[in-house]
TrEMBL record:
SUPFAM superfamilies: Lamin A/C globular tail domain. This is LTD domain-containing protein. Residues 20-148 form the LTD domain. Pfam families: LTD (PF00932). InterPro entries: Lamin_tail_dom, Lamin_tail_dom_sf. It comes from the Eukaryota.
Length: 158
């Protein structure tokens, strides 16, 4: 699944808009998948899309690589049960979780859980990031990536 978002930013030097496109891609082998990874390094979102089965992510790990930092590895050491139709937000220790309203949960028929991790940051990314989820046997189960494409103005000038 690919989602494209157009982000506009103001350029203080020329009072004109710079248009960029950011592509977000995700892939999973099974019902445990990424639903998002913030380029700012604040939060990684994992969800169980199964309507019947819960999963224990103990022994699973996340690897995140960005254009601004070396690879980061986070191991889920303790029992970590993800019930069916549940979204888990793994917040960095310096970020502030954003509460999700009960109305949103009812509309999406999904449970949301925010967890403040001990990890300082998930590492910010300027132009690209790749985040991978591995199960307890080391098999890759999910990937989430983002890439910001150069603006069409920059391409024309080059």
């Amino acid at each position: 699944m690919t989602k494209t978002t157009i982000i506009s930013a103001s350029n203080n030097d020329h009072d004109e808009l710079i248009h960029t496109k950011t592509l977000f891609r995700r892939y999973s082998k099974g019902p445990i998948m990424f639903n998002g990874c913030s380029p700012s390094g604040d939060v990684i979102i994992i969800e169980n899309i199964s309507s019947k089965k819960q999963y224990d992510l103990a022994g699973w790990h996340i690897e995140r690589q960005t254009d601004t930092h070396p690879m980061l590895r986070y191991i889920i050491k303790n029992q970590f049960i993800v019930p069916p139709l549940t979204t888990i937000e793994l917040w960095s220790s310096i970020a502030t979780p954003i509460p999700i309203s009960p109305e949103t949960q009812e509309q999406q028929q999904q449970s949301f859980v925010s967890v403040k991790t001990k990890i300082l940051t998930w590492n910010n990314a300027r132009q690209w990031s790749v985040t991978r989820l591995f199960d307890h046997t080391g098999r890759e189960r999910a990937i989430f990536s983002h890439r910001t494409l150069p603006s069409s103005d920059k391409v024309k000038k080059q």
